[in-house]
């Protein structure tokens, strides 16, 4: 399956966490599935998976949401990669990022997890940090709020006004990464907005 990509949205399971900042990655994967009219089904790797295509005749996309909590995402991700025969360079991990301002998207391959325990666990389970990441900016908490509490809070009312655009842009970034590569996606999404 040479042109198959595993697109993983990190988050926490259950209704308590659905609308929280930590589930930004899963919101993006939900958007990618909605665009294609596909639903998720249970997979034995402790995840939900939707199989689809970037577009007819193009790359196959395996959209996935681990059923595990964020900090132990690695097992489901590595299990899916093994099951489908997808190499780490085609495992795109979409996740929230504290160190990027809200309404900002950044892409990279490899490097430090930057304190993100979900990304750290995926790197450990895959045996390499060298996989593409689409980082959805959620910004740092105001004042002295603990970042651990901040990521588990729902998006604020003002954030929800533009959240749909942010999620849509992140989904576009995933599609561009798969279609045209990392550099093309970085050039589009790292440039200052007009």
Quick summary:
This protein is of the alpha/beta class. 37% of the residues lie in helices and 21% in strands.
List the helices and strands and how they pair.
Layout: E1 4-9, H1 24-36, E2 41-43, E3 47-53, E4 60-66, H2 74-84, E5 91-97, E6 105-109, H3 117-126, E7 132-137, H4 147-151, H5 157-180, H6 182-189
Parallel strand pairs: 1-4, 1-5, 5-7
Antiparallel strand pairs: 2-3, 3-4, 6-7
Structural description of this entry:
The chain is an alpha/beta fold and 194 residues long. The protein has a single domain, classed as Rossmann fold (3-Layer(aba) Sandwich), CATH 3.40.50.
In order across it, which strands form the biggest sheet?
2-3-4-1-5-7-6
Overall tally of domains? 1
Q: Summarize the amount of helix as a percent range.
A: 25-40%
The 3D shape can be described as globular
CATH domain class:
Alpha Beta
Report the span from N to C terminus.
Answer: 39 Å
Radius of gyration: 15 Å
CATH architecture call? 3-Layer(aba) Sandwich
């Amino acid at each position: 399956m040479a042109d198959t990509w595993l697109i993983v949205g990190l988050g926490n399971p259950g209704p308590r966490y659905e609308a929280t900042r930590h589930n930004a990655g899963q919101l993006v994967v939900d958007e990618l599935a909605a665009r294609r009219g596909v639903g998720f089904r249970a997979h034995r790797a402790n995840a939900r998976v939707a199989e689809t295509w970037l577009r007819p005749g193009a790359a196959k996309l395996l959209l996935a949401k681990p059923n595990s909590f964020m900090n132990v995402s690695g097992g489901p991700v590595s299990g899916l990669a093994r099951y489908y025969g997808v190499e780490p360079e085609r495992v795109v991990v979409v996740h929230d990022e504290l160190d990027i301002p809200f309404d900002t998207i950044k892409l990279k391959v490899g490097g430090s997890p930057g304190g993100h325990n979900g990304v750290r666990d995926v790197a450990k389970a895959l045996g390499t940090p060298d996989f593409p990441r689409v980082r959805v900016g959620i910004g740092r908490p105001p004042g002295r709020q603990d970042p651990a509490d901040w990521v588990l809070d729902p998006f604020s009312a003002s954030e929800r006004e533009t959240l749909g655009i942010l999620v849509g842009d992140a989904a576009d970034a995933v599609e561009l990464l798969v279609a045209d590569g990392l550099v093309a996606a970085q050039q589009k999404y790292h440039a200052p907005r007009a």
